[in-house]
Write a structure and sequence with these properties.
With about 450 residues, the chain is α/β, with parallel strands linked by helices. The protein is built from 19 helices and 15 strands. About 45% of the residues lie in helices and about 15% in strands.
Length: about 450
């Protein structure tokens, strides 16, 4: 699907029935700071990206290959943990000290950058370099487009949100993976009776909790429920499906569906994945990047066939299509508007020759990821992770609707209020009605 041209980008148009992906992004150990657009070596472009293996290794390799091929136009890379990066980049943009290449997830955050004049319009450059656009999934451009113009190039990989489970623990209690929300609630006391947490959750990171609501809103009321919020409709959060979804997630919390102390666990430490592969938790709702983390850090958990995965199950009586999924259609790179002409030239060369190359495609596949590059089916089927990659490709390509993550679709202001209220909801410190009231107050802001 080509990007929409009206002044208001349609949330649902980000991807419908096309092979695009989702990402809340990986997280891990942060690297050194510094490296703003105008700082460091004035002849170098600068690039901040997320840490955590195996994704960090792929990103570093892409930069290293580019630097080796371009000795007179280098890129200086700096890594940050997920949450630290989100704070750092906003501060740096506001202070006029951002990196040349601005990593992000598109949507409402990108729109705020555009409105502040902080990133360049890439449309003329893409028109002059059609091969850059031609090799990427068409529908991945939606979240990088504002008012019909491309301000962020889609990069990296397809990442739907997935329900993972530990097969051995299911065998231990003699149960099957959940095929409905009712099944999920039925499994909770069975696992708790055996001293096993039903679900792992790094609740302190907040966006990890959000994935539950994204699916429940969709499965109960269909994608139209959040679409109304995205469109800025008055009191859109008051939809009965919204109250139902918020109530159901609190029912799960009250039933002790999540690991004890989940609100003090952070995703940046990968502790939530560890709970799954060490057998302390039976299931985990998380991004598809978790497969690579589980394979890297989980010992024989993945090679032994102990890892199971599936799409989020339907809710009885719900309106949402079970093929629908959520997440971000890709990761994105913009060019900082205050970078020097020389830095911008290096950045554009990196976007056209340093990313989505054959070497990078193979690197992403080796981590258990599906790149956003067209024509990779034969490479996917030949991979040691072919079954997993086929699953991910199928989820993304067959989804009737692929909704962008809420905290990226909304403005930074509304997203921060959302994440705070989601945290309070999971901690049972506010009711569903209070959540709705708080969120209705920031619609359109």
């Amino acid at each position: 699907m080509e990007p929409r041209t009206p002044s208001r980008r349609t949330f649902l148009a980000l991807s419908m029935g096309l092979p695009v992906g989702a990402a809340l992004a990986a997280c891990g150990t942060s690297g050194p700071g510094g490296g703003a657009g105008g700082g460091g070596n004035a002849g170098n472009a600068t690039y901040w990206f997320l840490s955590a293996q195996p994704a960090e290794g792929v990103r570093r390799s892409a930069v290293d290959r580019f630097n080796k091929a371009n000795p007179n136009g280098q890129i200086t890379a700096t890594t940050f943990q997920n949450d630290a990066y989100k704070t750092k980049i906003k501060t740096a943009l506001g202070a006029g000290q951002a990196p040349t290449l601005v990593f992000g997830w598109g949507g409402g955050t990108l729109r705020s950058y555009v409105q502040a004049g902080q990133v360049d319009d890439l449309t003329p450059w893409l028109d002059q370099n059609p091969a850059v656009r031609a090799r990427l999934f068409d529908s991945a451009f939606g979240a990088g487009t504002v008012n019909g113009k491309v301000y962020a190039l889609p990069i990296e990989r397809v990442q739907p949100i997935v329900l993972y489970y530990n097969k051995k623990l299911f065998e231990q209690i003699g149960a099957s993976p959940p095929q409905s929300w009712g099944d999920i609630m039925d499994l909770v006391p069975k696992f708790n009776a055996k001293g096993i947490a039903p679900f792992s959750l790094a609740g302190q990171s907040r966006w990890t909790n959000m994935m539950w609501l994204e699916f429940l809103f969709d499965r109960i009321g269909g994608p139209e429920v959040f679409q109304a919020v995205f469109d800025g409709e008055k009191d859109a959060w008051s939809n009965p499906a919204s109250i139902d979804a918020l109530t159901k997630v609190q029912d799960l919390v009250k039933a002790k569906g999540f690991i004890k102390g989940f609100s003090s666990i952070t995703a940046d430490s990968n502790a939530d994945q560890a709970l799954l592969h060490t057998g302390k938790a039976a299931m985990m709702l998380h991004g598809s990047w978790s497969y690579g983390i589980l394979a890297t850090e989980g010992g024989d958990f993945v090679p032994s066939g102990s890892l199971g995965y599936m799409s989020f199950p339907p809710v009885d009586g719900g309106k949402g299509d079970p093929s629908n999924t959520v997440g971000n259609p890709a990761q994105y790179l913009s060019i900082y508007s205050q970078a020097t002409p020389a830095q911008k030239d290096i950045a554009k060369k990196f976007l056209s020759t340093g990313l989505s190359t054959d070497a990078e495609v193979k690197d992403w596949i080796a981590t258990g990821s599906v790149p956003i590059v067209k024509g990779t089916e034969s490479l996917l089927s030949a991979s040691k992770d072919a079954e997993w990659l086929s699953f991910v490709y199928g989820v993304a390509s067959k989804a009737k609707t692929f909704g962008q993550s809420w905290d990226q679709a909304l403005s930074p202001t509304a997203a921060e209020v959302l994440l705070d209220n989601i945290s309070s909801l999971f901690q049972l410190s506010i009711s569903p009605k209070e959540f709705v009231s708080n969120m209705n107050a920031v619609i359109g802001k």
